[in-house]
Amino acid sequence: MVPVDLHYTHPRLAGIYDLGNSGAEDRDFYLSLAGDSPCDILDLGCGTGLVCDAFAARGHNVIGADPAPAMLDVARSKPHGASVEWVEATAEGFRSPKRFDLIIMTGHAFQVLLTDAQVAEALANMAAHLKPDGFAIFESRNPAIDWDSVWARERTLQSPDGTQIHASRRIIASNRDTGMMTFAWDYDFGDAVLSSESTLRFLPHSRIMHLAEQSGLACADVLGDWDGAPFLSDRSREMIFKFRWA
Questions:
Q1: Quick one: CA torsion of 8, 13, 14, 19, rounded to 10 degrees?
Q2: Is the residue at 1 inside a domain?
Q3: Which of 68, 75, 128, 204 has its CA 20 to 30 Å from the CA of residue 175?
Q4: Domain range for residue 162?
Q5: Alpha helix (H) ranges present in 167-227?
Q6: Type and span of the H or E element at 184
Q7: Residue 201 and residue 111 in contact, taking contact as beta carbons nearer than 8 Å
Q8: Do 119 and 80 fall into the same domain?
Q9: How many structural domains comprise the chain?
Q10: What is the pLDDT of residues 98-151, one digit of tens each?
């Protein structure tokens, strides 16, 4: 059984999630996709709602979907949280009569889909909820990169109340053949240590393309970085996919 990631279920860890996951480059990239005119946006795996909140601040109509109630509780408290429709749902299970100009999965949420069946269901769900001229855009890390050596690290987080939290990440298991990696973040709050264990799948570019095409999506572009650089299979860290109706 895949372990439950406490990041998404424990209120204390959900409350500090943004401290280590609020990179401006990817957020700015996604915000640039919507333009200035109000449009209908669906964020699958919205987490604590950083991107949804920023879209809502610009006047867009936004639905944020996430399966973790603790994350949605944080999302609702954002400055424009009341303007967003929050839905407790997975990327595969989300259902709405609405159709969207833009569907996104940010923060590498795509990689929590651990089987081909989950990936295919999520991609088909994107296709089903797109407007005819809409786009589905998400990113996944390139498995050609040696993530095992990149990811073992430590850092110190500073909470809004001034508390310092020591965080360290360790690799538990990694299989380059299957693309599966299990790792943990250990958070030392001073009065308690909480460990959040996660499993991600590093799916190859070719497999994502194949599953997307089978799910009713056609590739419009693949980028290798947030600055718009083209994807290079042997060196790009990111695979940023842009799909439309097939």
A1: -120
A2: no
A3: 68
A4: 147-201
A5: 205-214
A6: strand 180-188
A7: yes
A8: yes
A9: 2
A10: 999 999 999 999 999 999 999 999 999 999 999 999 999 999 999 999 999 888
